[in-house]
Design goal:
The protein is α/β, with parallel strands linked by helices. Helix content is 51%, strand content 17%. The termini are far apart.
């Protein structure tokens, strides 16, 4: 009887402790997050580190369930699922989320930037305006991501605009920027969503695509192309975006925690991406034997002439004049700063 009584008392004590301190409490705020970025890429690895920090510092009250590699569909599908509550956040490409927030497209204007210093200056200047534009759509822009400078990659060498015209050229679905430029130079692009491009290359539906060096490897596009034209077509980037309704449910301290963690981790992601692009170019040339070809000087001059004409058509249609002027001001400031810098710095 004594033993039974002691056992009962011990059992009651354990039950009371278990009730007071659950072994693994469910998070109060669960964010289901989808992305086109493949699992194991630098993008998903850095997001995991960001998520781990938020999870730990919130005491487990915030958690994330990640759906990488396009398993939730393309950007349009991800956005629709956010709107009906199936997802609470997404890692979007500029092209996809630009349909919802047009001003976010501005940095993707073809041949706008010459260096990453220019990109960084414009991004810092534009980010507050981007955040306001997203909030109008009841979305919370937490961080910007990067694909990098994108280059023409093709099955045959392209060194002139005439050669570009004679190839089956891809353009991202619903991307008015690339389509406007290609139309301006006499190319009628074949529009495909990003998940469909590899199949398009495999079947011969498209012969020329645009991607960063690292992006072409992780998406396997390099397997069906043989040449890279050494003239960046533009700058590709993206965004980590939360559904505004879900984000608004967070206590102010938790919202600040997410923003602060993003400020620490996403600049590291951008640095990783740039290093991955540099490393990937070496791999593409040395291991996969892709050939880098230079555009003719005449082609480079033609490109700049066409760019000015294209921008005139984009202002007021693809994005606002105000956001373009803000980008240009940041660009002018950075170029003036670079011109004054001592040679060799």
């Amino acid at each position: 009887m004594v033993r039974i009584g002691r056992l009962a008392a011990a059992t009651i004590s354990l039950l009371l402790l278990a009730g007071a301190v659950p072994a693994s409490a469910a998070p109060k705020y669960l964010f289901k997050v989808a992305s086109l970025a493949p699992d194991g890429s630098v993008w998903t690895k850095r997001f995991d580190e960001f998520a781990d920090e938020v999870r730990q510092k919130s005491g487990g009250e915030i958690d994330f369930k990640i759906y990488p590699g396009g398993v939730m569909g393309d950007d349009r599908a991800m956005y629709r699922k956010m709107m009906i509550g199936q997802l609470q956040a997404g890692g979007f490409t500029m092209t996809g989320i630009g349909e919802v927030v047009p001003d976010f497209r501005v940095m993707g204007t073809p041949f706008l930037f010459r260096s990453y210093d220019e990109v960084d200056a414009a991004s810092a200047k534009l980010f507050p305006s981007f955040q306001k534009a997203f909030r109008v759509k009841n979305l919370e822009l937490v961080a910007m991501t990067e694909v990098g400078f994108i280059y023409p990659m093709s099955v045959a060498p392209i060194t002139t605009l005439a050669e570009l015209k004679h190839t089956k050229c891809w353009s991202p679905q619903s991307d008015p920027l690339s389509q406007a430029f290609l139309n301006q130079v006499g190319v009628v692009p074949i529009q495909l969503s990003i998940p469909d491009v590899l199949a398009g290359l495999q079947t011969g539906l498209v012969e020329t695509v645009f991607n960063s060096f690292y992006g072409s490897i992780v998406l396997q596009w390099f397997t069906k192309t043989r040449y890279i034209t050494d003239l960046p077509f533009g700058y590709a980037y993206g965004a980590l975006v939360f559904d505004g309704r879900s984000f608004a449910k967070l206590p102010p301290g938790h919202a600040a925690l997410i923003r602060e963690a993003a400020r620490r981790h996403f600049p590291k992601l951008i640095a990783d991406t740039r290093q991955s692009n540099a490393d990937s170019l070496k791999v593409l040339k040395e291991q996969h034997h892709l050939t880098v070809v230079a555009p003719t000087p005449e082609a480079e001059q033609e490109v700049q002439r066409h760019r000015e004409a294209v921008v005139r058509t984009l202002i007021g249609t693809a994005y606002s004049r105000q956001i373009y002027e803000t980008a240009l001001a940041a660009l002018r400031d950075q170029r003036a700063k670079a011109a004054k810098a001592p040679e060799g710095r």
